[in-house]
Amino acid sequence: MSITINFYLNNDPKTSKSDKILFAYIRDGGKTFQIHTGERINPKYWDVKKQEAKKNYTGHPELNNFLISYKQEIQKTIRETRTTNPAATFEEIKKALTNRFKDKPMNKGFFEVYSMFLELRANELSKSMIAKYKVLRTHLQAFETKCNYKITFDSINQMFKDRFQNYLMTEKQHTNNTISKLFDLLRTFILWSAERDIIDTKDVKVFKTKTEKTDLIYLTEFELMKLYNLKIENKSYENVRDVFCFGCFTGQRFSDISGISRADIKDTDWHLRTAKTKDVLEVPLNEYAIEILNKYLGNSKPLPTISNQKTNQYLKEICKLAEINDSIIKIMYRGAERIETEYKKYDMVATHTARRTFITVSLEKGMRPETVMKITGHKDYKTFKIYIGLTSKVAKTEMNQTWNKEPLKIVNY
Fold this sequence. Notes:
By secondary structure, the chain is an alpha+beta fold. The protein folds into three domains: 104 residues, no CATH class; 94 residues, DNA polymerase, domain 1, CATH 1.10.150; 144 residues, hpI Integrase, Chain A (Orthogonal Bundle), CATH 1.10.443. It has 16 helices and ten strands. It has a three-stranded antiparallel sheet, with helices on one face. It has a three-stranded antiparallel sheet with strand order 6-7-8. A hairpin with a 4-residue loop joins strand 4 and strand 5. The longest helix has 25 residues.
């Protein structure tokens, strides 16, 4: 039995001007069996005679190497089948190939696996994190089209990294930190794929991108109390202010505050299972937090939360009313370009500002970092540090507490 293996594009007329699916055709005389390789290519970049991508196709080495490996995998399956059963019929070989490639990860394209990743992790990740992965997918698909760079697991290499990073910087005008976050998401997806043998672990590319240090926005204790005691006539604004201040007094994320129930409150503690990490925290409630909860005892929900987007919109207007209007210079980098933008502080306040405010003010008031971490649920100091907006006040206070407890005596000899 002489079996031939060739690669052809599908003949669907509906896709005449777009990318076509690459199929592997296994033939024995008049019998034919085809396998979906999971790859696509525009016909204008496909060399029908050589059965490979043309050299003017970006990523042609990776795609052609993939096809070589794919053909070798088919040949290996046929050889193993014949070794086990020298008299194997074409139908038996077809069955062996079907079993080998039915759920074979290499039989799936990059974006097909990406969709599977989102589907399988939908119940593990928060809605906001799923949204970030979808944004990354949109960027990758747009990059593939705009830059004519076919994205496969094999083509995720240093050239891809350079070109995708340049695309995000020039076409999307993203800053270094935004680009770094996107690459972090991509790295997580690739490692997930490697752990499930979708790609070979030794071929995993872990890209390191530059992250610039940014100043974190938080309210000072004076600004927080000013906001807390602000007389507000607009009931919607008052509700948003109270929810935000509750976050400043507990250090918890807005997603967890939105999900709080009365059953979670035990005496003066909030028993919380966090939405992001699924950790169980016992959050002690101080007098300010309890006062806010008592204010809404007659309501069906412990706190009058609304959407995160609407809350952020109202917060800026409320903080402007509270005259939290210091000038803030935000410095970002796009490549080597330094971008300075001046804002009023009230324009920079959002729901996540509450968590940073709790951490910073608590440290300034003398709470030990370990205690703050226990309340906020941070597991390691490295992660915890990015939330700390340490001011000169902290350093000065600690210096005085350490060295100036007693007046220095000058001794004359």
